[in-house]
Design brief:
The protein has 3 helices and 7 strands. The chain is elongated and about 95 Å long. The mean pLDDT is about 80. A hairpin with a 4-residue loop joins strand 2 and strand 3. The strands form 2 sheets. Strands 4-3-2-5-6 form a 5-stranded mixed beta sheet, with helices on one face. The chain is of the alpha/beta class and about 130 residues long. It has a domain of about 80 residues: Nucleotidyltransferase, domain 5.
């Protein structure tokens, strides 16, 4: 008498379905180009110039917070984040909330100027 082997579950169709779902979600998802850490209300400007996005570093400034490339930092540690990234010749994109006191803006600009980081763009909303 021949001995029968127990029947097992065939996993091939389930693996196929998993891969199809994975491909579907990867293709249909939206990838954000740039994500800002702070919710800023930028001031309006009439004239603007397009800046290359590939070689940029972003600094965001609100009334209470400061962020570099989407990471919140304190004023004391901003240069530890900015200097290694800006030495590669990257343009610094400076996002400033419209309600920020001018003295806070000047404080950051002075800090950048002392380290000879002059490639700076102030970002505004277009009308």
């Amino acid at each position: 008498m021949k001995r029968r082997e127990p029947l097992g579950l065939d996993m091939t169709p389930m693996v196929d379905i998993i891969f199809i779902l994975l491909i579907f979600f990867l293709v249909s998802s939206v990838f954000k180009k740039e994500e800002l850490a702070l919710m800023l209300e930028l001031p309006n400007a009439g004239a603007s110039k397009e800046v290359q996005e590939k070689k940029t570093l972003s600094i965001e400034l609100s009334k209470d917070s400061l962020a570099v490339n989407g990471d919140k930092v304190s004023y004391e540690e901003i240069m530890f984040k900015v200097l290694p990234l800006a030495k590669d010749g990257k343009m610094i994109m400076f996002y400033i909330d419209k309600d920020v006191p001018y003295s806070r803006v000047v404080r950051i600009l002075d800090l950048l100027k002392t380290h000879s980081l002059n490639k700076l763009a102030l970002i505004t909303k277009q009308e």
